[in-house]
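Schema walk-through. Below, the input block comes first and the output block second. Nothing else is stored per chain. Lengths vary across the set, and this one has 80 residues.
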Amino acid sequence: MGTVYDLVTVACFACVIATYFLFTEGGMKVLVHFMLPAVVFAIANQVGNAGLRMGNAYMNVLAVILIVAGIGYTFIAVRR
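--- output ---
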């Protein structure tokens, strides 16, 4: 874990796991809704790391948008 994207996405993924266990009743239907942000965080990590390697600001912006979208979707899933 050498980049900021590694730290942020792993922290967000850990928060999604904690949210699943603490604030939901569980079940496969709810778990499917929590798998989507996990995948989004993994994609954001890869896009952000590639953006840092290539110096591409657009990829960094896309990574931040994906991270925010994953966090937002998690909040929506918990509120249901």
